[in-house]
Amino acid sequence: MGIPGNFLSAATEAIDPGISGWAAKLNCSISLGSGGRNGAGVLALQSAAAGEAQARTASSYPVAVGQTYAAFADASGATVPERIGIQWLTDAGTEVSVSWGLTTSAASATWHRISVGAVAPVGATRARVLLSMMTPGAAGVIGYFENIYLGLPLRQPLNLLSFNAESGGEIDSSAWAAGTNGTLSRTAPVVSWSATWYYSGGQVLALTVTASGDASAVCVERPSVQPGTEYLAYAYLNPPTSASNTWVELRFYDGTGAQIQANRGTLAAPGTGWYRQSTSGVAPAGAVSASIAFGITGATAGQVLRSEAAVVKIRTANLTNSEPNANVVLAADANAETGVGQWTVASGPATIARSSPWGTAGVSPYSYALTVSSATAAASVLSSGRYPVAELQNWRIIVAVRRAAGGWTYSPSIRWFDASGTLIGTGTEITFTVASDGQYWAFSSDQAAPAGAVSAQLDLTVTATAASSVLHVVGIVLIQVLPAAEAIADDTTASVAVVYRGLAAGALTLYRVLLTGERTLVRGPDGLVNGVTLVSDTYSLQDYEAPLGVEFYYQAEVRSLTTGAIVARQQSPHTTLAAGDRTMVWLKDPIEPMRNVQMQAQHPLPTFQRPIEQAVQRVIGRRNAVTYSGERSGAEGDLVLFTRTAEERRRLDWLLDPGHVLFIQASPRSGWRDLYAAVGEAGDAPDGADDDTWRVWTLPLTEVDRPTSGQAGSATRTWNDIRVENATWGDVLARYDTWLDVLLNRPKTPGG
Q1: pLDDT of residue 752
Q2: Is the dihedral of CA 351, 354, 359, 365 positive or negative?
């Protein structure tokens, strides 16, 4: 894939398969070199004599006066430094001017970024990219270039700062100013960035400390903010030494321009490279604007702190994207970027701290983790701050953890508080065992906020199973979602609507589990759900074979399609179908549940026989007979039912018509045992001539094995229902968010 938004063609950008997109401009020849990162080809410039050597794009590209443009490339040259420029042209091809980027501070054979930003001047209608080797001392000096871009500036998502402020002064230094005890300038150090990272490199800010002590620089741009909204700020820092105390700060200002709050994130540098440091904060009451600053504490005179790629934005799903944030846990508590946030050790021997140094324990895009250490094998409880929630909604906790030493189990719970701050409930804990492979594992559990809940506090019970155990925690999320698993009982049809969401890719097996531990495979549209390949992360079905009057739940297991190993387990909430009247019996067609019917039965229900093939031999002179027996078969007997109306007779006839195996259920209080049975010859015996008189039906039953065929249709939801409820397809689209909502008849809330 090419660089997004590039005016240059793919071949001109990557120098693949040749150099046809380029031409020599000054004191050089060009050729195709090798060893590139954006494709194998590179543009090789060879000086013809001493002096600057330049190449240009063979084509020019349309531009608009007053619009800001950017150009960058990756360069490699062991002899002389480089720079990049944008040549502005008229329609006739006459040069208007050239905007040059800074010359790199040194020559380097490693790939490094060169860049420039500029506003198209009056008279310019087209532009070219210029690549320059600065003043070779003789002929034959070679420099290499690739990964070349010309176009609108590539910006980090939702940045409230201008391109010039974000980029570290690609255009000029006007977006930044020295704060205290320092001077601010721009430079172009030799830094190697990933070929696919387009937001850093080239020109950067350099803060030079005037006298020993603290020094800082601040962005003079102050974008507007809203009180109560959470914001992120981050920038890359290049500290002078690994021991330097450098930082990024998010600052809030009132209407008079006075600073009223600052949230600092201090870098724990592992060396003297370039490291992204972030911070965050909620805009306080009275805040009207914000900005970003960077600095160094306790510096030595003459030290230089460099920075670029600065961002101030409303908090989104993570540091670098534009997806809206739905996590009510504050960023400072969720990812330990600035410290431990509001987390405390409520009980137990554990201690908590931010991991150090940068990058050793974080998981992209975060650079740190909350480090939990326990000297002894014991349980500890970590408690968060309180976060706003909505009552009667499902909330999901997601926490990513990894074992760094020892062994751990982890249990999340939620404490719910009302508007007065009174504890009104605590969510049930689920215990997870943290794998010993040193990888991050994300564990999630769902809990419903009780009525009256307005805030929630997370309690993480972490149990060290060995002395000197260390656990890393990151990515803490509390988010309102539809439940990961639902089991909605419908007593009118003696069925359960089962829905699983967020399933991992793989093969699904779904069990119905009694509290005794007995597990039964659940029937789906393709048969028993045993190794069904998932085509979506959502799976739903109607279970018409769940027991009556008994508590149970569903457990989904997803196995890898390649290894067969279980990659995910999800358990539904517990549910119970009503036992119902002891005189009523459900006759269900497992294959076509729309035929299901509930009938009144003779009471008490019959006692069935279990036939057996048996031969009896009576031996002369012997008291006891000798018997030869086969295996005893399942139950057989007659079930006597009553139909009270012509409609009930029609429903029973329709059920019996296809001759399918039936699943027959009754209240456990009746003494009935649920069974699958084939029905023999059956007919009704009228008590009178009236269509609405009661009639007696005798159903000869023979117990059989459970059928394994798939389920067709539903007893509760048909297209006719949708036609009756909605006049047009437009009404269906307006009433429901998803097809799953149509199936479950779950319309939008009014005004939603």
Answers
A1: 47
A2: positive
CA distance 8 to 284: 45
With H, G, I as helix, E, B as strand and everything else as coil, classify residue 192: coil
At residue 561's C-alpha, the angle toward residues 559 and 566, to 5°, is 20
Q: How far apart are CA 127 and CA 69, in angstroms?
A: 10
Question: Which residues, including other chains, have CB under 8 Å from residue 256's CB and lie 6 or more apart?
Answer: none
**Cα–Cα distance between 166 and 237 in angstroms, integer?**
13
**pLDDT of residue 734 exceeding 90:** no
The tens digit of pLDDT for each residue in 57-109 reads: 999 999 999 999 999 999 999 999 999 999 999 999 999 999 999 999 999 99
Tokens of 408: 């751990």
- Locate 579 and state its tokens: 């036992």
pLDDT at residue 493, as a whole number: 94
Which residues touch 160 (CB under 8 Å, ≥6 apart)? Answer: 223, 290, 312, 313, 314
Model confidence at 635: pLDDT above 90: no
Rounded to whole angstroms, the Cα distance separating 600 from 598 reads 7
- Tell me the C-alpha distance between 74 and 84, whole Å: 10
Edge-to-edge strand list for the sheet holding 213-219: 176-180, 213-219, 289-299, 245-253, 259-266
Which amino acid would we find at residue 497? A
Tokens of 67: 């619009």
Residue 161 identity? L
Min mean pLDDT across 102-111, 165-174, 420-429 is at 420-429
